[in-house]
Amino acid sequence: MNKKIILIMCFTFLIYVIYAFMAITNQITEFWDSTEYLLLAKHWAKGTPESGFATHREIMPALIWYPFFLLGVDELGIRLFMLFIGLANVYISYLLTKEMYNEKKGLFVACMMSVYYMNIFYMTRLTMYVIAPLMVQTAIYFFWKYLNKKKFRYILISFLIIGLGMTIYYNTAFVLLIIGAFLIITNKKFFKNLDLWKAGVITLLILTPYFIYSIHTYGHPIPRLAAVQKAYAEEAGGGIGLWNAYLKLIPNMLTLPLFLLMIGGLLLTYPVFLGFDQIIKEKTKKNFNDLFLYLWIIIPLILYTMSAIKQGPAGIGVVLPAYLMMIFPAFFILASKSVFFVYHFIKPFEKNVALLVLFLLIIIPGYFQIQLGTTTFFNRLSAFKEIQDAGDYIKGITQPGDVIVSASVPQLTYYSERMVIGMSIDETEEEWRVREIENKPSYLLLTKFEPHPDWVWTYPDKYNMTVVMGFGNDQTNPTAVLFKYNW
């Protein structure tokens, strides 16, 4: 192994250990989506309630977390596991870039991935946002090895990783679209490639038990797809005004130095356009790698932009920066083009100056990313802490069979280990009262940061509920309040 990548990995390990230590010692609170997987894993291991797990979620993450709860290491073990997932993201980015381009660019990309603020931030959160880009990069790496070596095992591994990735986090399936578009452009006869057919059939056969389970349990082979179809049909989304919602995020996510380097890299890929007709006519394989980068960036951007326009609350849509994590290695590769263009331009005149510039073009973007990562980490360190505190408190004053009411269903289920039911934002007071009487809940938790029906704020007084405790930094103005039912 190259000594430089070993040095980068050691540096990365040190950084990630520091952040993991801070997450553990500060008892960082998990977000909505991560607690859905965690509560299901805990349910399987310890028999705690599973209220709050959305049926469109993939179950594989819960299966991954399950052994940690079964062995009793819980979140501590999972956080250490996530640390190594973050490290794996760095190493695979090096291997992928080395395979597609060269080792020097691979080392630069590994450096940027090691300090990439979202890799740092979500490495400390128990979500799939860090695992997904690992699956994406690994699938692309083996696909590219197949293009270079023409060995069946590589395309099979690529397809198997895509298949496995779909059961972990849905956007790994985008790689199939990227590969498909690339093959359509570069090889009109790809459908006659028996390796692709064999790898596809084997992958489908392996995934068949998962599809059967999903159909039996949730009524659809791919529950996430069913949820998207339903949302497209029922929700108004953010509207066409969000056509550039994700594009606007990119400069801030890259930070200025990396953004400028990425733009420079885009300009340096001009031969793709000049020779595009030759690529389509299959007269050249030159610049295939740059073409693939464009597809890697454009296809997910289009899909997520369509999602923002069509899904979510009317006029708001769904726009999450974490969704773009899968395409950032491509941005880093483009940035590496600028870096080494500048280096090779200066080198013939003064090698030492060229080395100094190369050093600065690594250090300055890296510093900006670490700074952004640190700021993001500490700004969100205590986010939703009130839910964790309330959950711990509720666990201590209730019995396992008690029912709790809260809009924070998965988080409170996970932390309180009690059955939690929520009220819909569109639910009338009369409709809720029927469900409430049926379930006979013991406590109600209201928070300022979750959506509630308008009538809920006067509900505790109307039905003579008792204030138990407030949660938050300011006890005179708490952000979460626990009420006791007086049946």
If you had to describe this structure to a student in words, what would you say it looks like?
The protein is mainly alpha-helical and 487 residues long. It folds into 2 domains: 3-30 and 73-379, no CATH class; 385-484. The protein has helices at residues 3-25, 32-46, 60-70, 74-100, 103-115, 117-123, 131-149, 152-168, 174-186, 194-218, 223-234, 245-268, 270-274, 276-280, 288-310, 328-346, 351-379, 385-397, 409-416, 429-439, 459-462, and strands at residues 403-406, 419-421, 443-447, 466-471, 480-484. A 5-stranded mixed sheet has the order 2-1-3-5-4, with helices on one face. Strand 4 (466-471) and strand 5 form a beta hairpin. Helix 8 packs parallel to helix 10 (194-218) and helix 12 (245-268) runs parallel beside helix 16 (328-346). It is globular. 40% of the residues are buried. The model has no long low-confidence stretch (mean pLDDT 91).
